[in-house]
Specification:
The chain is mainly α. 71% of the residues lie in helices and 0% in strands. It has nine helices and no strands.
């Protein structure tokens, strides 16, 4: 199964059997003796990507995002005129960085940190606005995001949900459909002021978005597993970490939106 995630989809290294290749030449007796005399290889001297590498790099990117978001949430007032530029600026810079990173053939950790900082501005500002309207909603959204992550990881780990080709195809179609819906809804909202999320079925649309983002985590877990299995160089842990952070930000925003709709009558 090839990756369909925009972050991993252009990389053959994250497909099944995609990276590791072997010399077909029959080794000589001297070659065999040389291999026998070498010390046993470990993850430290093979420079191959491991799960620990992915975890550490995910934590570093998420740490930058979290620090930036908390700074905006704690230091900026909802009525401060700088809030809107921070939110829209962070969203635009984050989008541009994500496109450059996803379509670049070179792994760019520096741009990933820029993305994390920009998304921190966006997430922190949006969280501040929502929390002003609905007190305590941010804490609920954070707990919901962590709960969804743990639940999907458990479902994937125990084989309840598998990233089969059919599952991936359906999920990608749903993802592109939801993206198209979001763009159309945004355009209609700007023109007429009508927002589909404010309709009686708004909570159902938002719940669909939460479920879609959560299931995309399964694809992320599978892509990471295949990358490790294929023996990727350690630097590809940055790509894996970036993909996870992108999905987690999406999941958090969707949960925040759903909670706001459910609490709309408070």
């Amino acid at each position: 199964m090839e990756s369909r995630n925009p972050v991993f989809g252009r990389s053959e290294q994250f497909s099944r059997g995609g990276y590791a290749t072997f010399d077909a030449r029959t080794p000589s007796a001297d070659d065999l003796q040389g291999m026998y005399d070498k010390p046993a290889a470990s993850w430290r001297n093979t420079d191959r990507m491991t799960l620990d590498d992915v975890i550490m790099r995910t934590a570093s990117l998420f740490g930058v995002l979290l620090v930036t978001a908390v700074a905006v949430f704690a230091l900026v007032e909802p009525s401060d005129p700088i809030l809107a530029p921070l939110v829209f600026g962070g969203a635009i810079v984050g989008l541009v960085m994500s496109l450059i990173i996803s379509f670049s053939k070179k792994i760019r950790p520096a741009l990933m940190f820029v993305y994390a900082a920009a998304e921190g501005l966006f997430v922190g500002g949006i969280s501040l606005l929502f929390n002003t309207l609905y007190d305590g909603i941010v804490a609920q959204a954070v707990l919901g995001t962590l709960g969804a992550f743990v639940a999907m990881l458990a479902l994937y780990k125990f084989g309840v949900v598998k990233a089969t080709p059919k599952f991936t195809k359906i999920l990608m179609i749903a993802g592109f459909g939801y993206l198209a819906f979001g763009l159309i809804n945004m355009l209609v909202s700007w023109i007429s002021g009508n927002n589909a999320y404010n309709s009686p079925l708004g909570w159902l649309i938002a719940a669909f978005g939460v479920g879609l983002a959560a299931f995309f985590l399964v694809l992320d877990f599978d892509f990471v597993e295949q990358g490790i299995r294929n023996g990727l160089p350690q630097e590809y842990a940055w790509t894996a970490a970036f993909g996870l952070v992108v999905t987690l930000v999406w999941l958090y925003i969707e949960i925040l939106r759903l909670l706001a709709i459910l609490r709309g009558d408070d």
